[in-house]
Design brief:
With 396 residues, the chain is of the alpha/beta class. It has 16 helices and eleven strands.
């Protein structure tokens, strides 16, 4: 019996290693497809309202937010939304308002809540002040180029497009925690997302940037629907497609600035992301085991001892991982910052596999200092439900 289990475990490690190599090649192809796609400029660029949920400060926050205020675009509005009138980010927002007087910008402060998702609550408070048909939701740690709005607006020239989303990378990271957080995007999510989007034709929204037609957004139930879910970006993308609209991936690639101050914080983020994926796409999440080839071969070496075949497979998978990541980011994603992150790919892969295993352990996540339970379908409920019941009105 033990020999049978050992043989199965070793075979699984080899198969996963082979699949990891194949998936790396598919990711390169997906990145190439992304690099060479271009949308023609919108003949009549629509006015855009940018909604920015803010809670606390982020590294380089002024530069991140000012990149959205410096757009080469005719008509756009920016709404910064915060819930705490004493939020430490407020001085940064006031400085931005002084430095960019030409931008139609407001700061919305409100503690109103429509659900358990704190980000959605924040956005919902600003929604009544939005003036334009295209709504763009973006996190505070995102940085963009000056042509960003023109490139995101371009796919809306097709009236069938209801939502446009952007892939994101982490170009600059310093300190071990931020480098590992960068690799969780650059070496895990981004290659997987590119392969899924352009080879398997999956359609999903990514929370860093989501632009949506207002009529499509309202037809899907708006923030009232999203306020009950952890993965609001996934739910919104799915709902827009179900409403009969198309979802498109912009040809713009945006930067996220990592904010993990220590390794424990990074692991908390990583575990929350894996548990979110598990509740949204359980079968896809289980299939991620096949992309953990390097970690499984490492485990095989530790458990069964080194032999020529296993060591050769381990080296081949590890080297191929590094080479394909360098190829993707240098050739197609204009991200030379990946070079400083590549030496940490083995550690990032081991941590990713650990987080993947922890994703099965419970449905609890820590988000912005509060503990939540994830219910069936990704619905979000605070662990201390009684403490929130008196302040939150939940729509079924």
């Amino acid at each position: 019996m033990i020999d049978t289990l050992s043989s199965f475990a070793l075979s699984l490690a080899y198969f996963s290693g082979a699949f990891t190599i194949l998936f790396g090649a598919l990711s390169v192809w997906g990145a190439r497809r992304f690099r060479f796609r271009r949308f023609a400029a919108h003949p009549a660029p629509p006015p855009v309202t940018i909604l920015k949920p803010i809670k606390g400060t982020d590294p380089d926050m002024y530069r991140n937010l000012s990149s959205f205020l410096s757009q080469d675009y005719a008509h756009f509005q920016v709404l910064f939304c915060i819930q705490n009138p004493e939020d430490p980010a407020l001085p940064v927002l006031k400085r931005l308002r002084e430095d960019f007087p030409q931008v139609d910008m407001d700061i919305i402060v409100s503690k109103s809540r429509i659900g358990y998702n704190p980000k959605v609550n924040n956005l919902a408070n600003a929604y009544p002040f939005a003036k334009h048909e295209i709504l763009l939701i973006s996190d505070s740690d995102v940085r963009v180029e000056t042509d960003f709005l023109r490139r995101v607006a371009a796919p809306f020239a097709d009236a069938r497009v209801g939502l446009v989303t952007c892939f994101y990378r982490i170009s600059h990271a310093s300190g071990l925690a931020n480098i590992l957080e960068g690799l969780s995007v650059n070496a895990q999510f981004l290659p997987q997302g590119l392969a899924a989007a352009f080879l398997m034709r999956l359609r999903f929204a990514m929370g860093a940037v989501i632009a949506v037609r207002r009529r499509a957004f309202d037809a899907c139930g708006g923030f009232q629907t999203l306020g009950q879910h952890l993965a609001d970006d996934f739910i919104l993308g799915q709902s827009v497609v179900n409403a009969g609209y198309r979802l498109e991936f912009s040809d713009a690639l945006v930067d996220c600035v990592p904010g993990s101050s220590n390794l424990a914080e990074h692991l908390t983020h990583l575990t929350r992301w894996t548990r979110t994926i598990r509740v949204c796409r359980p079968w896809g999440y289980a299939g991620l085991l096949l992309t953990q080839g390097f970690s499984l071969l490492t485990a095989a070496l530790l458990l069964f001892g080194p032999d020529v075949a296993t060591v050769a497979a381990w080296l081949a998978v590890g080297l191929w991982r590094v080479l394909t990541l360098a190829w993707i980011h240098l050739a197609y994603l204009s991200n030379p910052g990946i070079l400083t992150q590549l030496p940490f790919v083995p550690l990032a892969d081991w941590l990713q596999t650990g987080a993947w295993l922890l994703g099965f352990r419970s449905r609890s996540v820590l988000w912005r200092g509060e503990r939540y339970q994830i219910l069936l379908g990704g619905r979000l409920v605070p662990r201390d439900k009684r403490a929130s019941a008196s302040t939150v009105a939940v729509t079924p």
